[in-house]
């Protein structure tokens, strides 16, 4: 912003210098209309210089900001990639543990799929749509899952697998 103020002051000084030169050079023959026209013409030139400088600085600032944002985005993407890579092993381990528990409960492949979709938070209606089956079939299989597992509801099913994952760390 300081640059704009300096540039505006410089343009105003040049503007006044040009007007003074014009008036001094043509003093006896110059009419007031010509002087006003010259003043207007020089004012337009000065305004064009200031506007060009202002927009040039703005473009420069936007490019700098864009560069900063792209750097931030690249760092965030790299951090997300690192997190996903680290988390993948844990998620695969969790998936294997869930699959083993489903086998201990003797769930059929269809029941295991419904149980997994239930753990992911899908409703019976959404599961039925995904599996191209009726909602009643999904409810019936969910009831079978709860019976084989000894659990009473979708909340208990989720708690069975995720309760220990959400325990807060004890203070040291």
Tag the structure with descriptive keywords.
172 residues; mainly alpha; Arc Repressor Mutant, subunit A; 2 domains; 81% helix; rod-shaped
List the helices and strands and how they pair.
Elements: H1 2-25, H2 32-104, H3 109-119, H4 124-131, H5 135-149, H6 154-162
Helix pairs in contact: 1-2, 3-5, 4-5
Structure description:
This protein has 172 residues and is an all-alpha fold. It has 2 domains: 1-89, no CATH class; 105-172, Arc Repressor Mutant, subunit A (Orthogonal Bundle), CATH 1.10.10. The protein contains 6 helices and no strands. The chain has helices at 2-25, 32-104, 109-119, 124-131, 135-149, 154-162. Helix 4 (124-131) crosses helix 5 (135-149). It starts with a helix and ends in a 10-residue tail after the last helix. The model has no long low-confidence stretch (mean pLDDT 85).
Got a strand count?
0
- Provide the β-strand percentage band: under 5%
Distance separating the two termini: 52 Å
Number of helices: 6
Computed CA radius of gyration, to the nearest angstrom? 37 Å
Q: Whole-number average pLDDT?
A: 85
> Secondary-structure element sequence?
HHHHHH
Structural class: mainly alpha
The main β sheet shows up as: none
Helix content: over 70%
What's the multimeric state?
single chain
Outline: rod-shaped
């Amino acid at each position: 912003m300081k640059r704009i103020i300096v540039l505006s002051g410089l343009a105003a000084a040049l503007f006044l210098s040009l007007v003074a030169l014009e008036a001094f050079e043509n003093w006896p023959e110059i009419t007031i209309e010509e002087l006003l026209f010259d003043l207007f013409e020089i004012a337009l030139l000065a305004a064009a210089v200031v506007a060009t400088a202002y927009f040039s600085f703005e473009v420069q600032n936007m490019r700098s900001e864009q560069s900063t944002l792209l750097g931030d985005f690249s760092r965030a993407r790299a951090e997300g990639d690192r997190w996903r890579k680290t988390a993948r092993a844990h998620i695969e381990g969790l998936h294997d543990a869930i699959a083993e528990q489903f086998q201990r409960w003797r769930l059929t492949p269809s029941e295991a799929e419904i149980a997994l979709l239930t753990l992911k938070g899908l409703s019976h209606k959404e599961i039925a749509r995904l599996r191209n089956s009726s909602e009643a079939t999904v409810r019936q299989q969910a009831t079978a899952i709860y019976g084989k597992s000894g659990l009473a509801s979708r909340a208990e099913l989720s708690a069975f697998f995720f309760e220990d994952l959400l325990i807060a760390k004890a203070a040291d």
